[in-house]
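Weekly sync notes, structure subgroup
Attendees: PM, AL, DS (notes)

Item 1: joint prediction request from the bench team. They want all two components modeled as one assembly rather than separately. Inputs as received:
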Amino acid sequence: MSESISNAHFVQAVRDRVGEVVVGQDVVVERMMIALLTGGHLLLLGVPGTAKTLLVNAVAKAVDLAFSRVQFTIDMLPSDIIGSELLDQTTGKFRTHQGPVFTNLLLADEINRAAPKVQSALLEAMQERKVTIGNASYPLPVPFLVIATQNPIEQAGTFELPEAQLDRFMLCHRLDYPTSDEEEEVLRRQLKMGLKRVAGGAMPKTAFDMIGGEPVCSQADLVGAMEKVQSVHVSEVFMKHCVEFVRLTRTHPAIELGCSPRAGLSIVQAARARAFVMERDYVVPEDLFELAEDVVLHRIRLSYEALAEGRKPGQVLEEMLRKLG
Amino acid sequence: MIRGFLTLATALALTGFATAEETRVIGIEGEVTVMLDRGDYLPKPLDDRTPLILRVEKIKPAADGRFSYDFHYIGFEPGFYQLADYLTHPDGSPAAELGEAEVEVRSVLPPDHDGALNDYVPRPFPWFGGYRMLLGGLAVVWVLGLFAFIWFGRRKKVVVEEAVVLPEPTYAERMRPLVEAAAGGELTISGQAELERLMTGYWREKLALPEQRMAAVLAALKHHPEAGSLLRALERWLHRPGGASPAEVDELLEPYRHLPVAPAQEVTA
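Output from the run, pasted for the record:
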């Protein structure tokens, strides 16, 4: 299986495996592949029921990555994420218990429900790729990727991530509802799933039960693909476009807070991965236009005047993109 | 008893009690010390119509076996008031032995005063002026001020001045120097980036694509036979490793070297 898979087919193999359980959402899968290939973290915004968790599960199992899922709640502590030192009563000594962050792919479900100190603990781990428990520092497994989800509708009892912490996410993708055809296909698949029998009992199967057990590619395949991404050519002209675009976010009159230099780095890295996904060995402006929303929108803050005029961040983004082409 | 009266009279004289010069007037509290034979006199209960309030502040035994009384009093009506009418024994019997020892409360005004507190000399009504005239004058000033405010605050007639504003340079005009520089092999990286943006904008404007996301606009342009081939050729030149040869660049840019440029129009602002 994965031993023989070529880098060129890496993406398609993962897409096909995910497509077995998730209908549509091709763009989200592409963004997850970009995050995997660049080691950048991904934030998914979407209303409940748009298969966010299922997608992450499917991708993790397709690539043979260690996977952890943490449902964030308001009463969580940082030690629930990064781990803690526990007293072993048999030996009388402290031993380190590593938390769920020690994994390759961490799904931080509803990250905005946790208190800021828990968010900070996770985001520090995302940035430094190591955690400190007690007096010792522990490196996180490689690759390490966080895919966090947020529900943009329910804001009661949530703690909105501040701009500085949102900046740590390379991409922030907003999930749309599936099309009518896709939704019909979801229903058709559900009707065919049948029952799951467990120890004499039974319950209807869900899409999670349909995720294939065997991965379609290994970590070695992923590393090979990541190496290929690093060799994707980025022209000087493309970098000029990126710098101009980021600069526009800082000078646009409707924007109070523009993008940091990290945004420019994210665009270039993500564009490289997208070029690889699209089977190109060089990036083109189309990559910038396609990724701009996911890279930039969570990094800018509109001015009070712009908000008072009823302008939306997406409209302002399109204005800036029109200046680029 | 006679000695008691003499003592009382002496005390009153010493403190100014019942003397014509130093007696208190209505409403002003006075005090007096009186020596009496007994030490158990009590003030009589008074009603709210009493013309004098007499209060015993202190009773001290004196060296000669008598008692020193400190009285405070306030009179509300002028006249002479006997102490016997305001003191009583502990058993409630009248203190008749006090005899005619009395307190005088004088009025502020002389007895023959007519009640006018201020002198009033009526003046004749002015022939011109006065309060009504003042009010009328203020009303006239207010109305005149209102008219002045409206008159001077009215909108001035706007003099329309014709200003000549040069139109924004077209995509073709902005592209021309860049295309010429590219043909001469002198186009910088910044110029190449600018040229690519202008060419995309030129075709976007030329095809008048509907308002939609720029990513969708770019995809639509790439599907257009002429624009698509140009953009793909631009991508090969500017973004692909190895780029394009000078001949290929010349061939690519040739159609854009002689783009018609619209004549400059004067716009009236």
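Discussion: The interface with chain B takes residues 233, 235-238, 240-241, 244, 281-286, 289-290, 292, 318, 321-325 of chain A (CB under 8 Å).
Action: AL to compare against the crosslinking data before next sync.
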